[in-house]
Specification:
The protein is of the alpha+beta class. It has a single domain, classed as rbstp2171, CATH 3.30.2220. Helix content is 45%, strand content 15%. Strands 1-2-3-4 form a 4-stranded antiparallel β-sheet. α2 packs across α3 and α3 crosses α5. The longest helix is centred in the middle third of the chain and has 16 residues.
Length: 115
């Protein structure tokens, strides 16, 4: 274990290291965009927005799409809005899955992470 810097708490060290990351992604038809790791608070907002959905499978999809909406940006601006969520079901599966996989990975979800 690393010893804390004098005057710095272990909690402060954790929070300093746990800042959200950004990765570049080549979005079909758009080009290079940013996939932004969400904060715990932002992920909680997505969860809250789908709480009333009774269908478990649909709730899972809505959670994933909600993460995509909040995480995908171009020049700091969101590319998608909540109104775009129904459109994902009509888009090419490979394109949607590729985007969703990148968003899930940066946000700490997915089998490759042992979750």
């Amino acid at each position: 274990m690393t010893k804390p810097i004098k005057g710095t708490s272990l909690a402060a060290m954790f929070f300093n290291a746990a800042k959200p990351k950004t990765e570049t992604f080549n979005l079909l038809g758009v080009g290079q965009v940013d996939i932004v790791e969400l904060t715990e608070g932002e992920v909680s907002e997505v969860r809250k927005s789908i709480d009333l959905e009774k269908d478990v499978a649909l709730r899972g999809k809505l959670f994933g799409y909600g993460l995509v909406v909040k995480s995908t940006k171009k020049d700091g601006e969101p590319i998608f809005t909540a109104q775009d969520i129904p459109l994902f079901s009509g888009a090419a599966n490979a394109a949607v899955e590729s985007l969703a996989a990148a968003v899930l990975k940066i946000n700490g979800y997915g089998a490759q992470l042992g979750n």
